[in-house]
Specification:
This protein is mostly helical. Helix content is 74%, strand content 0%. The chain is built from 3 helices and no strands. It has helices at 13-30, 33-43, 46-64. The radius of gyration is 18 Å and the shape is elongated.
Length: 65
């Protein structure tokens, strides 16, 4: 439990679990951005459409949290 040179608070299991839970949504919000370019191309939306598709997922994630 102490902070004696072993990494401080990050050594505690509870803190590691909480950090993992907070980082998971951010990790999964980046993965779908690659197919978004293919989808925008298939729709013929071009760069503006790709920008809207890529910003929709992070905005939804922030709104959901």
């Amino acid at each position: 439990m102490g902070e004696g040179g072993r990494g401080g608070r990050f050594v505690e299991r509870r803190v590691r679990v909480l950090l993992l839970l907070f980082w998971m949504p951010a990790m999964f919000s980046v993965v779908p951005e690659a197919p978004a370019a293919l989808c925008a191309d298939a729709l013929g939306a071009g760069s503006p459409g790709l920008g809207l598709l890529m910003c929709a997922l992070p905005v939804g994630t922030v709104a959901g949290e």
